[in-house]
Amino acid sequence: MASVGVLPNPGFGLAFRAMIAPRSLVVVGVEASFESSRSVRVAGADVGFQLFGLSARAGLPALRTAQVELIPTIGARAGWIRNLPSGLRDVDNSIRPTLLIGAGALVRIKLGAHLFAEALPELEVVVVRDRLRIGAGDKLYSVHRPSLFEGRLSLGVGYEFP
């Protein structure tokens, strides 16, 4: 998984997603994710960033062939941005909440009887965007505030239980 917008640099990480399709009409799912980005240099020191998230999503299949499936989705994600200052004082809080809502399109390509390659590009609006401030001596530095939008791409393998 990769993202741009919430962390100060592109974030890379892992996500675990479970989805069900009751009666094959609506697809619903939950996800747990972790992302990390490279550090930001502030006042001669480094500040690292991590993002932990829990999300819920729903979608309606728009295309279903023997080999390909396309499912537009909407979702919401609650997240916690953790900053890791090295040699600096965190003025606010080392863990800040964030909330994202958005839409995406899950593309599934059949690889075997129950095995799929999956891609989920998404665009999310960052609803909660707290600013991170760091103190070094008497000075206060504004380090990062998530942008209004986040782009995210998840690539993976899915298994469908019969």
Quick take:
By secondary structure, this protein is an all-beta fold.
Q: Tell me the structural class.
A: mainly beta
Unreliable runs, pLDDT <50, ≥5 residues?
none
**Major sheet characteristics:** 8 strands, antiparallel, barrel
Q: What is the level 1 CATH name?
A: Mainly Beta
Q: What would you note in describing this structure?
A:
- It is built from no helices and twelve strands.
- The chain is an all-beta fold.
- It has one domain (2-159): Porin, CATH 2.40.160.
- An eight-stranded antiparallel beta barrel has the order 1-2-3-4-6-8-9-12. Strands 7-10-11 form a three-stranded antiparallel sheet, with no helix packed on it.
- The relative contact order is 0.22.
Show the helix and strand layout.
Elements: E1 2-4, E2 11-20, E3 27-42, E4 45-59, E5 63-64, E6 68-86, E7 89-90, E8 95-110, E9 115-129, E10 132-136, E11 139-144, E12 149-159
Antiparallel strand pairs: 1-2, 1-12, 2-3, 3-4, 4-6, 5-6, 6-8, 7-10, 8-9, 9-12, 10-11
Protein traits:
162 residues; mainly beta; Porin; eight-stranded antiparallel barrel; three-stranded antiparallel β-sheet; 12 strands; 0% helix
